[in-house]
Design brief:
The protein has about 450 residues and is α+β, with helices and mostly antiparallel strands. The protein folds into 4 domains: about 150 residues, no CATH class; about 70 residues, 2-Layer Sandwich (Dna Ligase, domain 1); about 90 residues, 2-Layer Sandwich (D-amino Acid Aminotransferase, Chain A, domain 1); about 100 residues, Ribosomal Protein S8, Chain: A, domain 1, CATH 3.30.1370. Helix content is about 35%, strand content about 25%. The radius of gyration is 22 Å and the shape is globular.
Length: about 450
Amino acid sequence: MTRESTDYLRRLKTALTGDPATPLAFLCNFEVETQWARHHVGLPAPAAAPMEVVLRMEELGLLLAGPGDVILVKNAPDQGYLRYLGEDLGIGLPAVLVPETTTPDRSTAEDLLSSPQALDRLSALGRRGARLIPMGTSEFEEKLAVSAQVPLAVPDAATFERVNSKIYSRRVTEELGLPPVPGWCCETLGELRHALAQAAGLPGPMVVKDAYGVSGKGLVVLDTAAKADRLVRLLERRAARTGHDRVALVVEHWIPKRADLNYQITIDRRGGVRLDFVKQALTERGVHQGHLMPAELSDDQHALLRRAAEEVGGRLAADGFFGVAGIDAIVADDERVYPVLEINARFNMSTYQGGLTERFLAPGHVALARHYPVRSAAPLVFDDLRRVLGPLLFPASGGRMIVTCFGTVNTGAGNTGTGDGTPHQGRLYTLLTAPDHDRLTALDGAVRAALAGVIQPRENS
């Protein structure tokens, strides 16, 4: 099997650096939205610290980086998992750099800033021409780039924060003349009151979203006037305490839909825009669950998305952004496409699947990217999982399963407190491929069945 970089990665490097051979230091900081949100007033809910599962998802970068790159991670990947990726799948793996000083409540960038040995190794990479490529830039990644003297391959934190607001997404959609979901941008409490009054005249519920909410957080569905009144009263009390009525919210009509979509564009440093793919996003109560590939769309629906990709990409470039952006869209139950629900101008979950689908998704076949719950009586190593999944990990006529992130399986394993074997629950991220939808559904069922019980780790495994 080949161990070279994928065309997908080479195109990304060319867009961001001008050279497909540029070595990159990947930092998959999934918690970055919490940094952008700090300067904006959202819904009255306590800001949760980054969850352990979010921090362990940085392991997904192993699938995107190539053999000449390095991935920066808080926790060293399981050796059995690395052997599976390199030997079983033939993926050319990057080097792995782990900071020598870590704490659970800090991001990996913060850990690196407190780790002189890791910083020295990163600086040596910078002297050899490497660039730092975070999922998205915050002040911590900026500080890391300066301290390690490794230039960023993507824009600065201020640019990322500006273009990742849902308020920015709505305004760009309207200015470009693309079909918008009926809604309003609200930057003061007065604007929110006006928007809710206007929305009360529309049929069905409305949704209020934080400008920087993500994965179902910072979102409230209002399906009665009483709920809307309660929300306004909460915000009024907060405004009285803080002495200002600033907010960063959008109010939108909840559209009955047939499908959620996600499509990705890459914008190069000269402003060129490439549409990378369109996928059907799987969500549950606003929380991302996975992707189905390819999306079920007509030619006209595809054409509208291609137009939106070009125009949104051009606007992002004009506003100083270059790099990867994922755009969420919906197909309503009347088949009308709303091509810009929000712009996520950063790496997205589907970004990390690009190299895998290039390698393993055969022409005409279908794929499902999703995660499964895994219950275990104690921390697992990858070989424990291999024993449970067995032949599902190998190619067969019914398709195959590829493990895309193992580190999240053991999240919470050290927090059961009793040490008495009380099961904990983690997540296993996967990509399933099959010749058709029926066999893909059957494979999904087989994986669910294999993981249904409590997994007992093998002694001395």
